[in-house]
Amino acid sequence: MSELLQQVHDREWFYTFELPDGSTTSTYHGGELDAIHTTRWRMLEHTLEGVYPDGYAGLTALDLAAHQGWFASRLAQAGLRNVTCVDQRESHIQDSRLISQVLGLDKIRFVHSDIFDLDLGELGTFDVVLMLGLLYHLENPVGALRLARALCSDVFVIETQVVPGMSGMVDFGSYRFVRPLKGAFGLIDELDETHAPEAGATGICLVPSLEALTWLLHKVGFRDVEVLHPPADAYEQLLYGKRVMVVARV
After folding, report:
1. Is 13 part of a structural domain of the chain?
2. How many other CB atoms sit within 10 Å of the CB of residue 223?
3. Is residue 20 part of a domain?
4. What is the CATH classification number for the domain harbouring 43?
5. Residues 56, 126: contact at Cβ < 8 Å?
6. Does the pTM of the predicted model rise above 0.90?
7. Is 5 domain-assigned?
């Protein structure tokens, strides 16, 4: 264990993990982003407690773009039967595997893959599917939501940045065919940042408005779509609606 702990301390992390010896991981942002993760976790935990009041013992979860496994480890520690981490970066999978070993979590498995390359038949479905901090880095957000629906058998929780919405009627090919806008997407350029560990793979990002996100969740097959209310001391972007966390049921 001491050798594994030393490996953890020899690295810089995106997340602050509490380690068995009472120490914590050092982050490359000096803890400035911890509030994003802790707010997400508090909102997620509150949601799952409401959906599963009898506990999590029989549940399975999938974390899409799990990064270094912070949320997966929290779910495993909360008592879920097993948790699967998916991430496209091999370094993230290595970090997630290392931290799970140090924390003594044997309920987590790891899949190194772009989400669009996943073998859905092999993976199966999961009671809980997470997509936290991923959607706004993708050039195919609609496909990502369809994928989440295919993998989810009960609860889907998504957290994403959102852009201002648009509403109104538009001519769709002719003034005789008028259609209402169901939301909007903002186009964000990450083309010079694809090397960064928190950036998307292609650099072309389509960020939804809240209206677009909730409409799409219904249209890809979810029901009971609910925008979660952040706590009063939430991370500022969640508190002021620049990011949102949404839960949807199958």
Report:
1. no
2. 9
3. no
4. 3.40.50.150
5. no
6. yes
7. no
